[in-house]
Amino acid sequence: MNFILSIYHPDTVPLAVEWGCSIVKIASFELAWPELIETIARSRIKHVILSTGSATLDEIRATLNYLSDKQVTLLHCVSAYPTVPEDMNLATMINMKEQFNRPVGLSDHTTGLVAPAVATALGAMIIEKHIKLDDNGLDASFAVMPDQFRAMVEVCKQTKASIGEVKYDRPKTYHRRLVGNEMVRVVW
């Protein structure tokens, strides 16, 4: 597992490099801060996760120009806390992938599991979800408890597995049978 640091100020970039972070995240509100972006561009940081919640298309384009030597993953984000499903506009994530030819993901502020699953089905490579341990704190209204996070991960894994691959051949018939303590797949 890689350690990822969110960078909020240019002065913290050398610290990220010193700690050996090869991946950093830039939050939505810092995306258009030229001094921060330039400092990261000049650093040894290799991969930038860029949240786009408060950025225009032109601001995303300008930031990517500065970071042209970096691997950049764009996170679709709605900067509303919490975000209601009808405001998610996940089609934007698809458009970002088409516009910029970069990997995409989702910075999710909804309270449910639907948006991460749909984003996964639409090609998200990263799902960012806030976790809480209790109902206190700034993120409490949209963060999930660890068991909900675990469920989200499982739903996203099942979503990805359900997409599968293109297959037109006739599937083999099979069923599952319990043999001892293990579930086995019997094919005929």
The shape is globular
Strand order in the largest sheet? 1-2-3-4-5-6
* CATH top-level class: Alpha Beta
Q: Which H/E pattern describes the elements?
A: EHEHEHEHEHEHEE
- Rg: 20 Å
Distance between the termini: 40 Å
The helix fraction, in percent, is 25-40%
Beta-sheet strand percentage? 15-25%
What's the total number of strands? 8
Largest sheet: 6 strands, parallel
**Second-tier CATH architecture:** Alpha-Beta Barrel
Structural class of the secondary structure composition? alpha/beta
Unreliable segments of 5+ consecutive residues = none
CATH topology: TIM Barrel
What average pLDDT do the residues reach? 92
Determine the number of helices (DSSP H or I, runs of at least 4 residues): 6
Tell me the CATH superfamily: Aldolase class I
Number of domains: 1
Describe the structure.
- By secondary structure, the chain is of the alpha/beta class.
- It has one domain (4-187): Aldolase class I (TIM Barrel).
- 32% of the residues lie in helices and 22% in strands.
- It has six helices and eight strands.
- It has helices at 13-18, 34-42, 57-66, 91-100, 114-121, 146-163, and strands at residues 4-7, 23-26, 47-51, 71-77, 104-108, 126-129, 174-179, 182-187.
- The strands form two sheets. A six-stranded parallel β-sheet has the order 1-2-3-4-5-6.
- Helix 1 (13-18) links the parallel strand 1 (4-7) and strand 2.
- Helix 5 runs parallel beside helix 6 (146-163).
- The longest helix is centred in the last third of the chain and has 18 residues, at 146-163.
- The mean pLDDT is 92.
